[in-house]
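Worked example 2:
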Amino acid sequence: METSVRGTLHALRRYPVLYGLAFSLWWALVGIVCVAGWAHLGLPSDGQLLAAAYTTHCAAILLGAIAGSRAAAERGWFYGGMVGLVYALVMVAIGLVVFTTFTLDARGLFRLLVMCLIGCFGGIIGVNTVRR
């Protein structure tokens, strides 16, 4: 049994949604560290930080959906959308733990829908870039 990171990721490819989620969370972590460094070293406004955070999460979902649908090599919109949905639910869970408040209002549902649609779009791109 191979215990390297490459072997773990190869085993995770059998589950495209989890593979895409892991890929998304990795890129979200990288993006959040970059935004935090920018916030520490520069003087961004609140609006700029909010835009950077949304951009980071949208890019993470897009990249994770592409990776997940490439691993599946079929039904890219479905696997990409599932990556976006699970990513959104993970972010909601983190928000519940950190802030202990959650309201299921129209803005929250709209964000959830947008994350799913970004995932679907990334899945369509990813499944069409698979070499057969």
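DSSP finds five helices and no strands in the chain. The chain has a mean pLDDT of 88.
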